[in-house]
Structures are given as C-alpha cells and as structure tokens.
Amino acid sequence: MAAAATCGSVAASTGSAVATASKNNVTSFQRRGRRASGTNDSGPRLVSITGTRPSVRNGQLLVSTGLPALDQLLGGGLAVGTVLLIEEDKYNIYSPLLFKYFLAEGIVNGHTLLVASAKEDPANILQELPAPLLDDKCKKEFDEDVYNHKTPESNIKMKIAWRYQLLPKMEQIGPVSSSRFGHYYDASKRMPQELIEASNWHGFFLPEKISSTLKVEPCSLTPGYTKLLQFIQNIIYEEGFDGSNPQKKQRNILRIGIQNLGSPLWGDDICCAENGGNSHSLTKFLYVLRGLLRTSLSACIITMPTHLIQNKAIIARVTTLSDIVVGLESFIGSERETNPLYKDYHGLIHIRQIPRLNNLICDESDVKDLAFKLKRKLFTIERLHLPPDLSDTVSRSSKMDLAESAKRLGPGCGMMAGGKKHLDF
Amino acid sequence: MTPSEGARAGTGRELEMLDSLLALGGLVLLRDSVEWEGRSLLKALVKKSALCGEQVHILGCEVSEEEFREGFDSDINNRLVYHDFFRDPLNWSKTEEAFPGGPLGALRAMCKRTDPVPVTIALDSPSWLLLRLPCTTLCQALHAVSHQDSCPGDSSSVGKVTVLGLLHEELHGPGPVGALSSLAQTEVTLGGTMGQALAHILCRRPRQRPTDQTQWFSILPDFSLDLQEGPSVESQPYSDPHIPPVDPTTHLTFNLHLSKKEREARDSLILPFQFSSEKQQALLRPRPGQATSHIFYEPDAYDDLDQEDPDDDLDI
Description:
The complex is a heterodimer. Chain A is globular and about 70 Å long. By secondary structure, chain A is of the alpha/beta class. Chain A is built from eleven helices and 14 strands. Helix content of chain A is about 30%, strand content about 15%. Chain A has a domain at about 70-145 and about 180-380: Rossmann fold, CATH 3.40.50.300. Chain B is of the alpha/beta class. Chain B has a domain at about 10-230: Rossmann fold. Helix content of chain B is about 30%, strand content about 20%. Chain B contains ten helices and nine strands. Chain B has helices spanning about 10-25, 40-50, 65-70, 75-80, 100-110, 125-130, 135-145, 175-185, 260-265, 275-285; strands spanning about 25-30, 55-60, 80-85, 120-125, 160-170, 185-195, 195-205, 210-220, 225-230. Chain B has a nine-stranded mixed sheet with strand order 3-2-4-5-1-6-7-8-9, sandwiched between helices. In chain B, helix 1 packs across helix 2 and helix 5 (about 100-110) runs parallel beside helix 7. Chain B is elongated. Chain A: Belongs to the ELP4 family. Chain A: InterPro entries: Elongator_complex_protein_4, P-loop_NTPase.
C-alpha cells in the first residue's frame, strides 16, 4: 500500500531526471523540480498521515502502540493493516492498560477510534484513558520517577569498563524529538474531557446491539461476531478508510480496539467447553477481520483471555491468524511473586510472534527475557537480568530454585542455569 | 486478616468477614465441594443481607423452599422473596406466579428494575443452571444483572446489586468454573482440614490487584458465623541442626573490606589504559635519546653469536 506508492514516485522521478540529462548534457544529477511532477499540486508527493511513519527496514507504514518501549520491541511500531493480539494476564489487570494506551495514542494523534466490548460500555472505557504527558512537564516527571528508582551504587561511574556507559539503555526514557511518533502517558491521571470529545470515535457495546433470543445456526459465526464485523465494515466504508470515498482529501487511520474477545460474554463458548458447537467461530472472525484490515487504513488491538481457552489447538490457530502476539504473565498469585529474581517486577512479557510483512525476515529484537513493571505513572518494560551464579558455600536448595525459575526464561541467557543439575565451571 | 488469639472478640470480626464479602457487590461466587458444603455459608450471607435491610430475592432451584427456609427465624423469613423453581422447573402447572422463562427469565427481569434500594439475589444454584443452559447465556445474564450500577454517569438511580451464587466445583470441568470465576468480583473457595472449615477469599476490585485472604470459620445453628484460629500446626519446619550456617567471608586470603584510606588510595589510582592528561604529557615529551636505555647481555656458553642468517645457504 504505502510501500507501492513510494516505489511508484521514485520510478517517475528517475525517468524525468534521465530525460533532462540527455537534453543538457552537463550532469545526470538534476534537482527534481516542480515541472518534473507533471501535475499541478504543490504539496509533497506522499501524503503523510499524522501519527504514522514508514519503517526503516522496508517502508511499511507504522503506527505507534502507545508505549514507545513496546514499539521498539516490535520493530518500530504496529504496521497499518495488522492485528496486535494481547494475551491477557490471569486477573486482567495489565492488559486493559495496554488497550487504553493504544486508544489514547489514537486520540492524541487525531485518529478515528472504534471500541468494541461486551463487558464495559465503550464510553466508560474512553473516560478512563491515561493523560498524555506534554513536553514541558515531561522532563520533570521523568526525572523524579527515575530518581526514586536509582540505587546508591549506580552513582559510581564506571572506571575500567567506561566504554559501556555509552551503550543505550533498554528503554529510551524521556521525550523523543518533537516530530511525535510515540507519546508518553501518565497512568495516574485521566485524559482531559475536551480531548475525548474532540475525537471521532465509534463504540460497539454488545448487550445493546443484540437481543438475547437470537437463534444460532451451527457452523456459523456467533451473532455477536457477525454484528461486530458488519459494524466495522460499515464504518470503514462510510468513512472512507478503504479508499472508497474519493471526496475525502484528508486520510486518517482507524484504530480498532476489541476487548476480551473469546470470553463467554461475546457468546463464544471456547472458554467453557473443549469441543463446543461453535469452536470455529473465533478463528473465522479473525480471518474475516484480517481481510477487512488489509484493505483499509486501520490497525487493530485485541485482548483475549487465552488462559481460559480450554482447547490448546485453538490458541495455536488464533496465534497464526494474528500478526503480532504479545503475552502478559503477571506474578500475582503465583509462586514467582516471592522469588527474589522477580522482586522488582510485576510480570513477564512474552513477544510470541512478529509478522513478516513484505519481507523474508522479521524484525525480532535479540532480547527475549522481558519483564514489565507498573510504576505509579509509567508502564515500563525492561530486560530481565539474571543474578550472578552464587558460590559453593550457599546451600544447594536455593540454587535449585533459581535453576528452576531460570529454566523458564528464554535460551538467550545463561545456559548454565538450565536443567536440574547445577554444573559449575 | 490472620486468625489471631483475640478471636473471641466475636461479633466484631464476624461482621468483618461477611461485610467484606458483601461490600464489593457484583457477583459473589461460593465454590464448594462434597466434603465442604457451602449452602450454610450462603444462608449466613442471606441472613446478613436481610438484617441490613436490603431486598433479598432467592431463586431456589436445587432444594425445596421449606428446606431453604429452615433455620431462619420468622423475622428473616418474612423479608425473603422466594422464587421457587424446584417444585415445578418446567412450569407444567402453568401458574401465574411463576416467572416465564424460568430462572433465567427471572434474572433478566431483575436487570430491568429501577429502585434505588440495594438488592441481593441469592442464586441456588448456578450449577443447576449450568447443567441446563449454555454457559455463555448464563455468563451474559449474570454479567448483565451484576453490572447494572457500574455506570459512572448515572447518579445512583439503581441501588447496588449483589448476586450470591453457590457453585459445586466437582460437577463441572475447568472451563465453566474458570469462566464464572473470571466474572466474579469475590470468590470464596471452601476447604479445610480435620473438621475445620476454611475459606479462601479472593477479591477482585476493578483495576487493582486482587487480594487474597484465608479464614477459618464455622457456622452456628442460627446461621451466624464464628471465626476461629486454624488447627494447631504440629510439624515444625524441617531444619537440620547438625550443619551450622557457614559464613563464607571468614578465613579469606584476600581483603573484602576497605578502610577509608585504602578506598581513597584506590580511587586516586590511575589505571593503565585510561588516557589521562599525565599520560598524554608523557607521550608528548621529547625522548631524551638512546643514552637512557641500555641493554646488558651476557652470552651463554651455548649461544651462537654468528650473525649470518642460517637460511642463506638454501638454494631458492
């Protein structure tokens, strides 16, 4: 879509450059002027939509997910026309945050929003979006947050390994340059009412749209899903996100957010039974949704309670049908809460899949062990560092615990800690 | 809330537990099993709500009305509004007082009420409904009933709704139980050891971490609650008395701690690969010449002082 447009314009300009060179015979490098364009519009060739930028790898148009740290891990951002699936944590505390960051980013950039939920009224969801941090207050807020986090030892500058001080840390703390792609949000404050009212949003609340006495035919989509797909299709068509409305000059992105897809409140029974009657409903929905997204300027975020899905094969199919899959695993209630390895964090974040769009390789980051922490104002994602291996005199049982817990981490760190036997080198 | 020695401060603590269960509103799910039954706790909660002046509706499906009302005194019995679905679950006798649509219809009808009075609905039990209805329908109905009052825009025109449900865990697989737990605001799992009942209470407040408590209790014949300490713990945690803890910092051949003077001396040391200004001066200073460096060499008996290259006689 956007990449094809770039190629087209480059080809046109080289053609015109060659033509002028043959006339003047001075040099083949000519400045591309207005007469080379052939039409009379004086604007730039490529229309740029606010809040998007082309990827540095292949020119794919990207939008921000609302969390600049997550954008970095996904290779720059979420590509337009793709689905970001978030596997919810067990008590559904942190996944709504990511959902709200995505929507807040849409409001700040002026994108159109479509919020669908079976649990909460979309108007209530929009009232709870985090407030954006503006430039002048940003630095002060971040400094105070970082300062509270710093330990005394980190004040010592490195004397022997001084070159490592120049390496960038995992997360770029602080506001990025003024051409804004990703914004920072204050999770403790609400978005101001006037910003929400000034934005263009559509809500889909399932209990209002559907009457409960509808009969479901077998092997078809659940009526809730059918209505949602029709709603999304109507919005895309009426507002011209798929290019069907040529009068619209100003192009914009549609951000779709679907909350708790697959839960019983949508009428889907994959969380209740292993082999229910409608077990293909969710996968069909995702397939049709991807078709709608690929032909329009939209990006979608879906949160799904995969820990409730009984049939593991469905989870695998759902992962394949989505583009980016991020899993959140919180430590609440699990035995990891008391593990000293994880005491600074609230949970682990797993990047389960990154798509290969118009590409043979995908942009995966080399850091596989990531943990997140919800500070008072920020949601941060950091690399998880294993502690150094302890000496022989420490009791064997604690070493076994660390080996067990470290086994769950990715193969990228510490092969020594894998397996039950603890080998020392 | 840990059971402490002052458990005899009876009524104060008892109210705390029942209050905390009823305070959040929404769906309160009591999960019981064959060994630890939950109907008496359900009746204790019903009695507490009735005494607080709330409107109490009972949707009785599993046991008969007489059995449910047994043990309550007449004051409470008069306050309960009982909908009986046990005697005639399929409504064959076609009487007008039965709700059309069965218990599900009754639940949906309660969604549409508009009184400001807080209401408690005791559902006895969702297990009965799960065996007869699709799980998704029940989840949608329970969610609609328990979330009527959650709109921040309305000024409390609808009172708080609490739905108490008694779920028999062993009748269902992990799927329906998981689905209902994810909808519940408070979940009480009953267990226990050695004749003492234990309640694990999990409270999910919206957008906050869930809180987890355990409480030993027993229910008295008049359905009031008696909080207790747990049974005494007889086994000590296993500790090995033969191996004393070893301090690894004793008997070291190197120094782990630095005194202040040593620390200052260490800080002022210039490391060999640091490019400091002194090193720069040393490199830029003009060399004094060959006279300053001498090589002293004493030839050994076996040394060959021949200056020729041994490879010269190779005929290449």
